[in-house]
Amino acid sequence: MEYLLVMSLSGSTMTGIHLLMRCLLKDRICARLFDLLARVALLYYLIPLPFLKKYYMAVVRDLWPEGSLEISRVPLTWRNHIVHAEGTMHVNIFASIQTAAVIVWLSGICILLARQIAEYVRLVRMAARYADRAMTPEQRIFLDGLKNQYGIRRRVFLYEAAEEHTITFGFFRPVIVCGRAVTSREAEMLVRHELVHIKRMDALWKIFMQLAVMLHWCNPMVWLLRRDFEQVCECSCDEIVMYGKPMEEVKEYLRLMIYEAGEKKSGKVSVRWKSGFGDDTQKIKERMENLMSKKKWNRFAAATLVAVLAFANSMTVFAYRDSFEREVVEDVSEEEIDEILNEDTAVFVPVGMDAEAWHELDQTEVPENVQGILYDDQFTDEAGNIYPVAEDNGIEPYCDHTFISGTLATHRKTDDGGCVIKEYKAQRCSKCGYVIQGEEISRHIYVTCTH
Fold this sequence. Notes:
Layout: H1 2-25, H2 31-46, H3 50-63, E1 72-75, E2 81-85, E3 88-91, H4 93-128, H5 137-150, E4 157-160, E5 167-169, E6 175-178, H6 185-199, H7 202-215, H8 220-241, H9 247-262, E7 275-276, H10 281-292, H11 299-313, E8 324-328, H12 334-341, E9 345-348, H13 355-361, E10 377-381, E11 386-388, E12 403-413, E13 419-429, E14 435-446
Parallel strand pairs: 2-8, 4-6
Antiparallel strand pairs: 1-9, 2-3, 5-6, 5-7, 10-11, 10-12, 12-13, 13-14
Helix pairs in contact: 1-2, 1-8, 2-7, 2-8, 2-11, 5-6, 6-8, 7-8, 8-10, 9-10
């Protein structure tokens, strides 16, 4: 669930950048740039990027030596804390709360999915009216000529239907339903518009948009993105169709746009993964103003700007938190499991820091009478080298572990001012610091904690 929240955060920040630029620069920048930004924001909603954290952390360690990184105490109460014992997984209260949140989240998805299925059935019924039709030679020649101009090799079907609003639906075998005769000038402009949608695979992107809405239905930013995505998609499509055309032809295109919007029927199919030339009269004004204002388009500059903004937004991967997991391979009592799960904090230090570096970094943390306990959780290998347990007990989730044997010592203070030190058989990965806890070897109880 936390991965989903970080994906929602990443998508929301990119959506905010997109909407802010639209608000400030709409009159000076082509809609094609905003269309690219909207698609990048959509991908952030759909693609988790925890693997990037691994590479970014490696860069951070190269820029800042480990010895200069601060030691921190991370609270465990509000993070997933999981204990694996005897083939059973035990979780803390926070993980249980997230389970309840998942149930609510899935309920919302089911409601939205049912709505989309109902709208898809309406689309299928409309498409069934054209199932037994064949394209006439005149229609095929007309369509092939326009496809060649736009470099489209996919198989596309074109049908005339005077009673229908001009729309396009389908991804693998797109179907254009045109409300004009193919011999007319209006049909050429309408079909050009729909072919641009097909070339850019807008139907597929609208499916992705619906998927993002279902996954993040409780985030208002994704609903704003969906509304704006449909508008910038149409505006950018208009720009491509009319690129380099004389003003008289642009005005003719605008008149057709107004007419098509006025002919919109109240009973039209409203599924989000189809395209229509004039879908909303309230948005026609913006499309007209966008076409009438001449804006320069530089593909390289647009791609560079989008890449820079996407990279800056990828810094949100640092918000991904891995579960704090411990694996117990031997017999363990329920009391010990509860004790581990109810820990409040854990001390995290840079991976690989030795005792000497610890002393140099913070002498106040380690008094002179440490008695061999340098960290609240430490691993000692067979050669006597002491290592702290790394953050999340496995900072590299994609590591192919190489384990060495040793002992794990845990130091816990008690309410009366004393402490308990437990020692276990353990194994530690020499690459990422992941520790597997084995059977308990000894337990030492101190009336007064001196560690």
